[in-house]
Amino acid sequence: MTVNTNYEVSSEGAVRHWEIPQARLENTAPTVTQAAAVISLLPGTQLTGTVLTVDAADDIAVIDFTTSMVYAHDVRNVRTYAQAAEASWGVINIGDPIYYDGGATMVALGLFLSTSPLDAAGVANPLFGFAVPAYWDDVYPKGAIGAATATDVPVMQIGAGR
Known about the structure:
By secondary structure, the chain is mostly beta strands.
C-alpha cells in the first residue's frame, strides 16, 4: 500500500455558506460583516453566523455558518439587564462566551453581540461563539468593568456545527 504525500487539507473543515431569506433573520435588514441569527421556534437555539453578502433585490443574505470560523465583531460588554435597561458590565476575556443579542436595547445601538446570556426582555440569547485572540500578542481583557463599551473582539463562531 502506498500513502500519498501530495494532498491538501483544510484546517477549517467544511465551509458552510447558505442563502437565507432576509425575512427569516432576526435582523431583517442585515449588513455585510454583521452577526446574524435565523428565527427559531425556541429562543436561545437560533442558528447563528456572519453575513457575507446581501442581495437586496432578492431579499437574500449569504451567511457563513462555518464552525470555528473567526471574525472580528463589535461586542457589547453587558452582563445583565434590569427592567429592560443594561444593569452590569464586565471585561471580555479569552474564552468568554459571546451571545447573539437581538433585544431592543442592542438593536437601537446597531449591535448584535453581547456577553449576556439573556436579552433585555429576559429571553435566552443563542450562543454565537467564544472570544479568541486575533494573534499571539492580542491584548486581553477587552472592555471595562462597570462601564458600557462596544469592543472589537475576534469571535470563533459556533456556526452550524453545534
